Known about the structure:
Blueprint: H1 3-7, H2 11-32, H3 42-50, H4 56-62, H5 67-79, E1 83-87, E2 95-99, H6 101-122, H7 127-147
Antiparallel strand pairs: 1-2
Helix pairs in contact: 3-6, 4-5
Amino acid sequence: MKPFSESKKSISFRIFDTVRYLGKALDHFMSVNKIPLAGDQVPLLMLAAQFEGSSMNDLAKIIERDKAGILRGLRSLEKHGLIRFQDTAADRRKRLVYLTPIGHDLLEKIMKSIGKVEKILENGIDIVTLKNFYAVLDIIKSNCLKITGQKSESIGDSDFNKKK
């Protein structure tokens, strides 16, 4: 039995392997474009921007992560000067998250970089294949949710009319 060779044929291995390479590519792209964040910090900055003025608890619930992990990530973004915390008058324990002007500027640069990466990733993939790929990803996500006992859902929010 050759577990490593056999596992390379599985869906989960192929996805993990692809995600690993995608992470490396994104980190490289961020470095080349002088974006001072690791790839795993970028989604947190994007989340903070989209739900600006939310509490850390709310952000943790949105992405289904523990509050301590979110806090560590947000503190790192705060050290980079990208976000700030603001206490609420009603509850001193509740701290709301806001992007700083530097955070907004960097996010704009990140979004442009991500657009470039997306074009590279989509290179050689026609629109039909891309639609099918997204549909397969939705099915896999739905099946993963079933495994963990969560409600199965579909993303289905890709606007392919804007693509290609």
